[in-house]
């Protein structure tokens, strides 16, 4: 008996059923051809070494939710362990795959992997359909509309997409027919134990501030979209980096994993804003989503976007390697309570406010520690639930004034900045409990507290909490000079190139 042929949808950063055109293509194709439908996720075992525990947890939850949602339409998720380039060709044989659908991604590692898979598909006569569905706009079209050039400013980007009609999102609700399920539908042969493989127990998943999955993502979106006035009044600079509960939506982990479609978010925002007086980009919520589009377009059109060397957008700044500074920063031990609180929140919860990211990114690079943004981006990659290749690199370049933003002399103060929205230091007290009993007067600068106050608060600086790693007042001024020199050199090199 000849084996039934299959249609495979390869899930990557599209862990959802809504607005998943590639998945719908796979379902339709399976139905039309009377093939078996194989919704598949490939879990690279190396992920354990690359991704922090919070993000792994989010991924496990998202995959479980995806499976549950697929079962609601009479299908299921196959999770296959291995490197995609090794195990997909084996699956193509085993399952007699004739048709594969997937989402277009721009992370160079995924792009390289896709090229290999695409070639194998060509050789095996497997038809491949790729869909751009991680962004509102097709970044390749935007780049083409700008003659292949990267739009270097947000406003330029907005002008390029201004007349583009954003298509409606689709929903997949129709039951997959029994013919497409295949005889081994209920077999556990292809199942892996996500928990065992990634080193988690069921209990580990319980304690979680932002649980992963499409269901949670949609719920979170709907909660915010019912607060119409809040959405319409939203202005990013008026939100707070150090509120105990987030002052922005925290939709980013869901959007980054593809549990929530950015296009659906876009349409919902348009719906809420319609007929209402509302804020506008760049500060509105829609404006935030457009920042994401901007960085995606820049990332798609720039070689070595996540690196300094070989990246045409990035100013070459002579950062210094300093493992001690980097470690102290990453572990929240700089001796600056606001910076340490942010880094500890990041490590514990996997999410921090945008302006908190500003604070710590500036501090690590041009502000205080003079360590390369590439090092900071790696730490964020490890800890952030919402890690996203282009958004992380783009924002790090912005904050280190390496690209997009050039006012390098505007430096965040690790003392004054946090005070603006949290005078009493409640946020610091939560994430740096050693300082919990410090008087508000010293909570941002505990080294200034007299010994008797330190003793009364039960925390001696230099003993129970680190002495500050650098003197901000001094180093930030020196660093401005160094930035000035790097910018000058860049200008001179440009002039020389033009003369040649
Ligand atoms: P909201 O303010 O509610 O905004 C809604 C959505 O808009 C977000 O979910 C996000 O998808 C998008 N968005 C908001 N701000 C930005 C921005 N500045 N750039 C691009 N998109 C934005 N965001 C990531 O998703 N992944 C990253 O890896 C990432 N790395 C960052 C690194 C640094 C150094 C900095 C300064 C920012 C980074 N950001 C990153 C951008 C931003 O901080 C987060 O997207 C935002 O804080 C997420 O919280 P939210 O969902 O509550 O945002």
Word description of this protein:
By secondary structure, this protein is of the alpha/beta class. It has 3 domains: 1-132, Rossmann fold (3-Layer(aba) Sandwich); 135-166 and 214-301, Serine Threonine Protein Phosphatase 5, Tetratricopeptide repeat, CATH 1.25.40; 323-488, DNA Cyclobutane Dipyrimidine Photolyase, subunit A, domain 3, CATH 1.10.579.10. The protein is 48% helix and 6% strand. The protein is built from 22 helices and 5 strands. The chain has helices spanning 21-33, 47-50, 53-72, 84-94, 108-123, 139-145, 154-161, 194-198, 214-226, 228-233, 252-256, 262-273, 285-301, 323-330, 337-349, 354-367, 373-383, 389-399, 416-419, 426-431, 451-456, 472-499, and strands at residues 6-11, 36-43, 78-81, 97-103, 127-131. A 5-stranded parallel beta sheet has the order 3-2-1-4-5, sandwiched between helices. Helix 1 links the parallel strand 1 (6-11) and strand 2 (36-43). The radius of gyration is 25 Å and the shape is globular. Flavin-adenine dinucleotide (FAD) binds at residues 236, 246, 248-252, 255-256, 285, 288-289, 291-292, 295, 353-354, 357-358, 361, 380, 384, 386-388, 391-392, 395-396, 399.
